[in-house]
Design a protein that fits this description.
Mean pLDDT: 76
CATH topology of the largest domain: Endonuclease - Pi-scei, Chain A, domain 1
Low-confidence stretches: 1-34, 140-163
CATH superfamily of the largest domain: Hedgehog/Intein (Hint) domain
Helix content: 10-25%
Distance between the termini: 29 Å
Length: about 325
């Protein structure tokens, strides 16, 4: 018997949602916070960046080993100086400032200079760089108005949060009926292909934002199958899970039927929508390619275990949460 009236918290009995507090506690197991004082000293560290531990190799959880950016931050006395801003800590040929939206090195914690808040990358990860080349250098003038943090409409183009693992709205999935639907039209309760002829129900969305615009990595295979996802999204590569952002030409992706196809092209593009359906199985086939529903924020087995209570509640009572969708 429920200890509360669902109507009092805005949920219907037929498709009840879990209390926000329950889901918040569960998801907190999947993230870890950085030192707020340090983040305040780095441009865009408190917004626009999918990383809570910017100075560590695993910027989201656990691993406390300091990366090259963190080491340089300490060397420069924990100050965002012009020299530190112009430095390329991770060796990806893009300065720390360009990666964090301050290519002209004008920002300080005190002056609040305007920053680019889209296409932000991790300055401690050589595999993470801005998608658009014009964002990589200082052109001697302030960023155009459409890219500034004061522009409210551009908030829909910054990253949704740490460790986001999502697909664009036009990604396609197959339903048990054989019908192909776009991710934006997928609903909780739909049974979707998860690989090798198997199907599994969607029991919640951890992101479901039709109005969002985001940068995606697109992988094209020799078979013609092509999938787009955020760089932290896990995908099956050479028989094991790997973040999409680290997949290169020549590696093999697993197709829906269990066979593999070689990656022939890797590109980046902006696309509308931000969706991450969670299936009871833990995998989902998007655009003919098998992927996980999880992110590198946690090992997939641990993430699957964290969501186990929510899967059980959905299976037994038909309850699901919309707490993380937006």
């Amino acid at each position: 018997m429920l200890a509360y009236d669902p109507a009092e918290i805005g949920f219907s009995r037929d498709k009840m949602s879990l209390p926000a507090s329950t889901l918040f506690i569960a998801l907190m197991l999947a993230t870890a916070s950085a030192r707020p004082a340090y983040r305040d000293l780095i441009p865009n560290a408190n917004q626009g960046l999918r990383c809570d531990r910017i100075g560590h190799y695993d910027c989201l959880i656990g691993n406390k080993t300091v990366n090259a950016f963190g080491q340089d931050f300490a060397k420069f006395g924990y100050v965002w100086s012009k020299e530190f801003c112009e430095r390329d800590s991770d060796g990806d040929k893009v300065s720390n400032g360009a990666e964090l939206g301050d290519p002209c090195c004008e920002w300080t914690p005190d002056n609040g200079a305007r920053l680019r808040v889209i296409d932000i990358s991790q300055p401690g990860d050589k595999y993470s760089v801005p998608a658009l080349m014009q964002h990589n250098s200082c052109v001697g003038k302030s960023p155009p108005e459409r890219l500034l943090q004061e522009t409210p409409s551009m908030k829909v183009m910054s990253s949704p949060g740490p460790g986001s693992a999502c697909f664009p709205g036009n990604a396609r999935v197959e339903l048990r009926s054989g019908k192909m639907v776009q991710m934006r039209d997928l609903q909780v309760g739909d049974e979707v292909a998860v690989g090798k002829g198997k199907f599994s129900k969607v029991f919640m969305f951890t992101h479901k934002m039709r109005w969002w615009k985001n940068s995606y990595v697109t992988l094209k295979t020799e078979s013609g199958a092509m999938v787009s996802a955020t760089e932290d999204h896990f995908i099956y590569v050479n028989g094991r899970l790997m973040p999409v952002g680290r997949v290169g030409v020549g590696q093999f992706l697993e197709l829906e039927n269990g066979t593999s196809s070689r990656v022939v092209k890797v590109s980046r593009e902006f696309a509308d929508g931000l969706y991450n359906p969670q299936t009871l199985h833990g995998d989902i086939v998007a655009d003919g390619i098998r992927t996980s529903t999880y992110t590198k924020a946690l090992p997939s087995r641990i993430a699957h275990a964290v969501l186990s209570p929510l899967r059980t509640i959905y299976t037994m009572a038909g309850m699901y949460s919309r707490f993380f969708e937006n």
